[in-house]
Amino acid sequence: MASVTRLQLRSIRFLIPFMIAVLKIRTQANGAPGNLGIEVRKTHGLAFWTKTLWQSESALISFSTAGIHQTNKPNLQQWCNEAAHAHWPVAGARLPSWLEAEQALIKYGRLADLDHPSLAHQAGTVVIR
Questions:
Q1: Which of 19, 21, 81, 100 could lock onto 118 through a cystine, CB 3.0 to 4.6 A?
Q2: Is residue 75 in a domain?
Q3: Kind of pairing, strands 47-54 and 2-9?
């Protein structure tokens, strides 16, 4: 099971607390049972991506509903003006490419509920730039 998330911060003032949270969440993911890989990248502006690979959907759910990942979800509602995530089944134990992750986000992506959504987010658009 693969997962991708794209988060765009709405202001640079959230960058330091966001980066601290990302480091902690990455540590949590690396130690999570069933995690087969994780990559993080920054793209246009204040947009940040993660992609992970899991042995099973239950391992992914256990990770995403516990620890620092779970406790930071309310912060993301405030910090981000765009947030989308998707998970999809993959064959093998190879982390998908970023292109595959982008395509999955378009196909399977779900938008998060945000306090200050961008116009694209309000329109229901999954942004991948």
A1: 81
A2: yes
A3: antiparallel
Number of domains in the chain: 1
Cα of first residue to Cα of last residue in the chain, in angstroms, is 24
Q: What is the mean pLDDT of residues 11-22?
A: 97
The CA angle 44-104-20, to the nearest 5 degrees, is 50
At 34-69, the pLDDT tens digits run: 999 999 999 999 999 999 999 999 999 999 998 888
Return the CATH number at 64. 3.30.70.100
Instruction: Yes or no: say if 4 and 104 are a contact pair by the CB < 8 Å rule.
Output: yes
Q: Tell me which residue has tokens 């329109």.
A: 123
Distance CA 17, CA 79 (A): 9
